[in-house]
Structure formats: structure tokens, C-alpha cells
Design a protein that fits this description.
Residues 94-224 form the Fungal lipase-type domain. The protein is α/β, with parallel strands linked by helices. The protein has a single domain, classed as Alpha/Beta hydrolase fold, catalytic domain (Rossmann fold). The chain is built from nine helices and 16 strands. The chain has an eight-stranded mixed beta sheet with strand order 5-6-7-10-11-13-15-16, sandwiched between helices. A hairpin with a 4-residue loop joins β8 and β9. The chain starts with a strand and ends with a helix.
């Protein structure tokens, strides 16, 4: 069943109808909660959800219930574990907020790179502590939306610190609660676990995890893997090059050369390119641009 999410900026796509895979769209994006393979349409909706998690709670309701058509939603706020859960027929959406510059606790969570036992291997201690602090509230929200028939497909997303928390939440749900998660879309995610964690996670859920990286986004290269801290990414890479082109799979050498080209192209512009490439606004616009190209 298709769940239609109405985009916040109706004019972003214009009024001209376009077709994707036989689906005619104007201002509405179809979201398929049952799909398992990569979906650019779903990616755009989840990018908007990851961005919405940064907004104040009073702005979330009008978007989620008024414009996106969700039946119910709840904001959660426990330390660095912040975001929202929302429910609509056939769909539960869980979105985690990333680091906020003025939130000191977020920086402490980011900085604590010690590895400690997690659901499927050793994981980033700071991220895990942040998730555990808010887990009971998150768990309660998911249980409330689950329903007796368990027919709602659970989708999880997040940006930056939020992407790390989304990954750990997915692992916790899969390994400890034996709960079905339909898909995980990550934007600008740091590494969250060691080789053992990444191998186990990818074996069980890598095919349904999609990790977006934008050119020189510095956060996606942290924490730096060492012998003492053998961090490794999870999921399937979706890489935007410095021309904003989306690659489903690309070599480390291609990405290295592309990052150099991106830095050269950004010379003379204000701000560090590694930070600018990390902004959620940029990820959202890149996914939207890729979707526009697909719709032509």
C-alpha cells in the first residue's frame, strides 16, 4: 500500500505532473512502507523527516499531521536522544535529530569514542549512552504505535549524531527485541561500531540500510579507524560527488580524487567545505535534485 507524504514546500517540484515507475505525481510523494530495495522516492521523504527532527516541536505537528497526513506523532527529548515518532496507516516513522551547536551534551556524546559492548559488537560509547538515556521513552512510543496486528512497517532515519542513534536503535530492535525494521536511511553518519558490529549488522540488515555521504562531509570520516578503535561503517553507500551526482557504488580511490576536486572547486568560498557538505539542508537538496533527474 502506498502512503502519500505531502512535501513541505509544494512549489519545490512545481505543479507539472511527472511519472516514476508508473506513479503520477504532482506535489505529493508516494512512500511505499513495504519496499526493501533502495527507493529514491522514499529517500527524499526520509531526508525531509531527518531535517524536520531539528525543528522545534511546535513546528513538527503542522508538518506531520497537517501537511504529511500522519494520524499521530510524539516528540521525544532525553538528553542527546531527540526527535519524533509518527504513525500513519501501515507506517511508523522514527526520526532522530543530530548534533546542535548549542547543546553541550551532544558534543560530549560525539567525543566519547571508547568502544563498549553493544547489541551486535562493540559500539561507540558516547552514542550508546545517549540512546540508552532515551530508550524507554522511544520504546514506549513504538509500542503504542505498533498496534495489536503489528501491521505497521517501521522506518528509521537520522542525520549526523541522529544517524548514529538511528543505527544503534535499529540494532537494538533487531537483536534485543526481535522486532522487524523495514528500512534505515542515514544522512551524514559517523561510524558507530567496530568490525564485529559492522559485519554482523550488514549480514542481517545491510541490504536495507542506505548511508548517504556528500563529497567532503567530514563527519562521515569519523571516528578515524585505528588498531585500538577499529571503527567501520555499515550499510550500502550512496555517494554524492562534487557535481551532485549520485553513485550507488564507487571505489575509495574515486571518492578520494573527487574530494580533492570538491575542495579545489570550493576554494575562495566562505566556510569549511567539510562542514558545509555535512549540513542536512544540503543532503535534502541533493536527494531532491537526484529525484528531479529521475523524473524527467
Amino acid at each position: 500500500m502506498l502512503i502519500h507524504l505531502i512535501v513541505l514546500d509544494v512549489d519545490a517540484l512545481g505543479s507539472k505532473a511527472r511519472t516514476i515507475n508508473g506513479e503520477t505525481m504532482t506535489s505529493n510523494f508516494p512512500f511505499d512502507p513495504q519496499v526493501r530495495n533502495f527507493s529514491l522516492v522514499n529517500a527524499y521523504a526520509l531526508a525531509r523527516a531527518a531535517k524536520l527532527a531539528y525543528r522545534p516541536p511546535e513546528h513538527m505537528g503542522p508538518a506531520l499531521q497537517g501537511e504529511w497526513g500522519f494520524d499521530d506523532w510524539q516528540y521525544f527529548d532525553q538528553g542527546s536522544a531527540r526527535g519524533f515518532a509518527a504513525s500513519q496507516a501501515g507506517l511508523i516513522l522514527l526520526s532522530f535529530r543530530g548534533t546542535k551547536v548549542d547543546h553541550l551534551e551532544d558534543w560530549f556524546a560525539d567525543a566519547n569514542i571508547q568502544l563498549e559492548p553493544g547489541s551486535a559488537g562493540r559500539v561507540h560509547a558516547g552514542f550508546q549512552h545517549a540512546l540508552l538515556r532515551g530508550w524507554k521513552e522511544i520504546q514506549s512510543l513504538l509500542d503504542a504505535y505498533r498496534g495489536d496486528d503489528h501491521s505497521h512497517a517501521l522506518w528509521i532515519t537520522g542525520h549526523s549524531l541522529g544517524a548514529a542513534l538511528a543505527t544503534l536503535a535499529t540494532a537494538k530492535l533487531l537483536w534485543e527485541e526481535q522486532r522487524v525494521v523495514q528500512g534505515l536511511y542515514l544522512f551524514g553518519s559517523p561510524r558507530v561500531g567496530d568490525n564485529v558490529f559492522a559485519t554482523a549488522f550488514d549480514r542481517r540488515f545491510g541490504a536495507q540500510t542506505f548511508r548517504f555521504v556528500n563529497n567532503n562531509d567530514v563527519v562521515t570520516r569519523l571516528p578515524i579507524p585505528t588498531r585500538l578503535f577499529p571503527y567501520r561503517h555499515v550499510g550500502r553507500l550512496k555517494y554524492f560527488d562534487h557535481h551532485s551526482r549520485l553513485y550507488g557504488n564507487t571505489s575509495w580511490l574515486h571518492r578520494l580524487l573527487d574530494r580533492v576536486q570538491g575542495r579545489v572547486a570550493d576554494l575562495g568560498n566562505p566556510g569549511a567545505v567539510g562542514i558545509k557538505d555535512h549540513h542536512m539542508d544540503r543532503y535534502e537538496s541533493l536527494v531532491e535534485r537526484s529525484l528531479h533527474a529521475r523524473m524527467k
